[in-house]
Structures are given as C-alpha cells and as structure tokens.
Amino acid sequence: MNFDGRVALVTGAAHGIGAATARRLHDDGATVVLADRDADAAGALAGDLGPRARATACDIHDRESVDAAVGTARAAFGRLDLLVTVAGGSIPTPDPEQLTDETWEQLVDLNLTGTMRCVRAALPSLRESPRPAVVMVSSVNGLAAFGDEPYSAAKAGLSVLAKNYAVRYGPDGIRFNVVAPGTVRTRVWDSQDGALERLTPFYPLGRVGEPEDIAAAVAFLASDDAAWITGVTLPVDGGILAGPLRTMFPER
Ligand SMILES: NC(=O)c1ccc[n+]([C@@H]2O[C@H](COP(=O)([O-])OP(=O)(O)OC[C@H]3O[C@@H](n4cnc5c(N)ncnc54)[C@H](O)[C@@H]3O)[C@@H](O)[C@H]2O)c1
C-alpha cells in the first residue's frame, strides 16, 4: 500500500491491533497520529516510529478528548485523510439476567458511541481530503453469537453505522468500512491461561490471528486499492465464521 503524504489517526494505537495498524500504515508511508488513553505507551511507539508519528492522549468516552485528538492531528500535520477506530474492548459480563444498565452502557459507550465520537470529530477534516477513508474495528462477535452480549451488540452496531455513513457521505468521497477480527493474540488474552490454545482448533486455518493480520486488512480497506469498496464488514477471522462443518460433523 502507498500512503505517502497522507495523515492517519488511529485510536487504541498504544497496544495490540491498534499498534500494529499504526506501524503498518506508517511503514506504508503514512504520517500517523496515535490516539490512546495510555499516553505513555502511545508516546513510546510514536518515538520509535520517528518524525512521521505523533502521540496524543485520548479517551474515546469523552467528546472533548476526542475532538482535541483530531485537533492535535490537524495542528501537527495540517490535514487528516484516514481514520482508523480500534479503541474498544470487553470486560467479563454476568449472565443477561444479572446484567446492570451501567455495565451495558459502559460497553456500548466504549465500543459504539466512542467510534461515533471519533467519526463526528474527524468528518470536517475528512471532507477536505482528496481520498478519505474510515475503517472501524469490530469483532466476529458483531456478526454471530459468541456470548458477551453488550460487547457483541455494540460491535454489531458498527456495521450498520458504517453502512449509513457510507451512503450519507459517499457523495463527499468518504468511504466507511469495518474489519471484524476473530481471536487475535494480544494482551487481552494474557489473563486467560491456555485460552488461545483451546480456541485454536476452532479456526479452520489452524491458528489464531496476529495483530498484523488485522493491520493488513485495515491497510487494504484504507488504501486506494479499495477505492470502490464502502459500507462493508470484512471478517478477518481465519475462517471461523465460514460454517460449523467441523464442529457438527467432525468425521467428514
Ligand atoms: N484481541 C482480540 O481477540 C480481538 C478480537 C476481535 C476484536 N478485537 C477488537 O480489537 C480492538 C483492539 O483490541 P486489542 O486486542 O488490540 O486490545 P488491546 O488492549 O491490546 O488494545 C486496546 C487499545 O485501546 C486503548 N483504549 C482502551 N480504551 C480506550 C479509551 N476509552 N480511549 C482510548 N483508548 C482506549 C488501550 O489503551 C489499548 O491501547 C478492540 O476494539 C477489540 O474489541 C480484539
């Protein structure tokens, strides 16, 4: 991919999928703004990347903080061409009958409303870009039943949000797409001993994902090679959503 001369803002860029995405876009020529609640880690990665990178503290729960992150990108580099919303995540949630409104709202705010805040803040800048694109990171949880209902419902919301934005802002040339990862080896699995090994056999391609697998798909959807793709959700999932053949008929 060639992102020379283009400025990308990546949320959740301090760790995991966001960090791999920021690094990938940077390696492909973009100037990157790493927006993350963990400002120290984002700063360390930006320092590692060099002058075409800048970190900014950003909490996607907070409108002012998100607006300020976009303002930092504009002030530092004068433009914004690409927005990649990766910040999100889940926490262990109780059974639906025990679920509190507070937990529901917290997860919807982090995984759906926070992305809306980022798009809302970025739109005026994206409109000025010649080839703007937005890529949102969802999850296979937003496409099929894997439990974690509040997280899953919020991630599912991203797909229809992207479709609506794609139609509404298509005439402005702004593309909106979603990447839905399966299980990816990041720190979120560190506390669950043996989980990745247990999940591996469910993946037809024989492994869980690496952050770079997701970064590659984001880079494609953000690039000019995807110039006529908008409003889609792309599973990047080692085949786990392809079907239950092996679970239902292990003998076949
Ligand atoms: N790891 C997986 O298996 C997996 C699978 C599907 C989808 N995802 C999604 O991918 C995204 C990244 O997950 P990851 O595994 O890389 O997690 P991670 O914890 O490694 O990275 C998440 C990043 O987001 C930042 N962040 C969290 N809350 C924030 C907030 N309120 N404001 C700003 N930044 C915030 C964190 O500081 C961190 O840098 C999430 O949206 C997650 O739901 C992950």
UniProtKB/TrEMBL annotation:
Signal peptide (from-to): none
Keyword Oxidoreductase applies: yes
PROSITE patterns, sorted: ADH_SHORT
Keywords from the named record: Oxidoreductase
UniProt keyword Nucleotide-binding, yes or no: no
Entries under InterPro entries matching the protein: NAD(P)-bd_dom_sf, Sc_DH/Rdtase_CS, SDR_fam
Family designation: Belongs to the short-chain dehydrogenases/reductases (SDR) family.
This protein's name: SDR family oxidoreductase
